[in-house]
Design brief:
about 15% strand; three-stranded antiparallel beta sheet; 4 helices; alpha+beta; Plus-3_dom; about 130 residues
């Protein structure tokens, strides 16, 4: 294995940047829905952040891909519903998040490792 250099692992930030390229905020979805003829081709396959657990403060939203669209039944004003992966019910515009995507830090992991070091130091000093 001479001359073979092991490449360092690339950070996960690349995947996050790519995800931001296909993530649609509620305002954008609403503005795209004004032109129903091109709406499907613009939205299909992209990701939306859907409020699925309103009473769970830890995980209120899920990032899900759009798999289909349809007009709301009985609505004359072109109300559009989104069909997303892993949800049996259609998604209304009000269920979409308008927040930007952000990386979640890992303070719990750092805190846990620091806490473990502190506990080990305390146990050795006793």
């Amino acid at each position: 294995m001479r001359g073979c250099v092991k490449q360092p692992k690339k950070p996960m930030i690349h995947g996050f940047v790519n995800m931001k390229l296909v993530y649609l905020k509620r305002n954008l979805v609403e503005s795209l829905s004004e032109n129903y003829e091109t709406f499907e081709s613009n939205v299909m396959g992209s990701f939306v952040k859907v409020k699925v657990e309103p009473f769970d403060p830890k995980y209120p939203y899920q990032l899900l891909p759009v798999t289909g669209i349809k007009k709301a039944p009985g609505c004359e004003n072109k109300t559009v519903l989104l069909q997303v992966s892993d949800l049996p019910d259609d998604v209304t515009m009000r269920m979409l998040s308008n927040d930007d995507l952000s990386l979640v830090g890992q303070p719990e992991v750092v805190d846990a490792s620091n806490s473990e070091k502190d506990n080990n130091a305390e146990n050795t000093n006793e």
